[in-house]
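Retry 2 of 3 after timeout on previous attempt. Resubmitting structure tokens to design endpoint.
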């Protein structure tokens, strides 16, 4: 009744739910909605995803970050076509065997799409269960994590789950019920149980200043009875942040710009970016010395912005530059593309902002049409 109206909750299509769950890892719900809608329009089912090129998948994912998610999902889609008839697997064990699918994702899809009693344990559910049952210790370490998983499994098993549209192979076996038993039971929904736990953590049982007065579990919550809501869960202190600084170079030669592709492994693998180097965080104007083989055409950055990757706080500055007069187009590694061609490539999030600034400048420079 009080759940958020999210687009992937209007369907029981396991593919649509799976894509949403993959996107929601490390991504806010408000950000994921537009990406999910665009994705489902472009690649509406598993077979369409499996047929897509890696470049198309990366372009659709552009800006979401943590790109290993889309690479693993693409590999999983191909496994589904090869081994599962183009559908998300109907058993937890088969789902767990897919590339990039862990215990949480397998449990979420199997419970929400197939109504199986498979548990979920994300950050929101960890917080709810830690406070509700007074689970001491770091929930991400083995002892606390194992207890929370057991609690999550007991709750979803107690939901008296049955398939919504009649018994299916795998669902009855997972629940331990026979078909005859199933016809007599109440048929409460496993997916709804898991979604309810997620919603409690997202909307009421928040990390700070939880809305205990509005919580339907307030009378049985250990942390609330003890007045110790802020003590649960007992997470280890966040890692210290580090500051880094990069200079990117906007090199224009006859209307084409130099871009390069990142290595196939590591952060932002295979995404595109402008040539760049790391520079000292505190120097006033270090880019000129680091620009080789380019020559800067100005001392002020064309664009500057900040972004974060894990515990790294990064300042990125883009400078206009050119190749020395004697250097040919092959003097610098990369490819030369028009701005329109660059728009079709999947850039890293930070360098996409540089491209947007470049687009805006070019559009301002273009003469207005005469009526």
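Retry 2 succeeded. Sequence:
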């Amino acid at each position: 009744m009080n759940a958020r109206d999210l687009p992937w909750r209007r369907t029981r299509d396991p593919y649509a739910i799976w894509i949403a769950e993959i996107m929601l890892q490390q991504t806010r719900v408000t950000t994921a909605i537009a990406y999910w809608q665009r994705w489902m329009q472009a690649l509406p089912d598993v077979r369409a995803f499996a047929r897509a090129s890696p470049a198309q998948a990366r372009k659709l994912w552009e800006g979401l970050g943590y790109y290993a998610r889309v690479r693993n999902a693409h590999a999983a889609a191909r496994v589904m076509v090869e081994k599962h008839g183009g559908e998300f697997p109907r058993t937890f064990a088969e789902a767990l065997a897919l590339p990039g699918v862990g215990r949480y994702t397998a449990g979420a899809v199997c419970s929400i799409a197939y109504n199986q009693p498979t548990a979920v344990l994300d950050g929101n559910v960890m917080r709810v269960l830690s406070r509700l049952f007074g689970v001491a210790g770091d929930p991400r370490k083995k002892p606390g994590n194992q207890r929370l998983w057991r609690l999550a499994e007991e709750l979803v098993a107690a939901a008296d789950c049955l398939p919504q549209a009649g018994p299916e192979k795998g669902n009855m076996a997972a629940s331990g019920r026979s078909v005859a038993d199933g016809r007599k039971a109440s048929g409460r929904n496993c997916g709804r149980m898991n979604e309810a736990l997620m919603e409690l953590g997202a909307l009421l049982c928040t990390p700070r200043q939880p809305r205990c007065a509005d919580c339907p579990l307030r009378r049985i919550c250990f942390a609330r009875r003890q007045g110790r809501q802020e003590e649960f869960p007992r997470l280890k202190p966040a890692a210290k942040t580090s500051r880094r600084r990069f200079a990117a170079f906007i090199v224009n030669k006859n209307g084409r710009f130099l871009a390069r592709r990142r290595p196939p492994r590591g952060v932002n693998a295979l995404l595109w970016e402008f040539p760049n180097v790391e520079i000292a965080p505190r120097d006033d104007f270090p880019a000129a010395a680091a620009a080789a083989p380019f020559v800067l055409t100005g001392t002020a950055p064309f664009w500057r912005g900040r972004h974060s990757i894990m515990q790294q706080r990064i300042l990125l500055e883009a400078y206009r530059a050119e190749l020395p007069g004697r250097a040919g187009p092959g003097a610098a590694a990369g490819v030369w593309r028009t701005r329109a061609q660059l728009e079709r490539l999947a850039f890293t999030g930070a360098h996409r902002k540089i491209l947007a600034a470049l687009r805006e400048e070019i559009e301002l420079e273009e003469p207005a049409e005469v009526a």
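Attempt log closed. DSSP finds 16 helices and eight strands in the chain.
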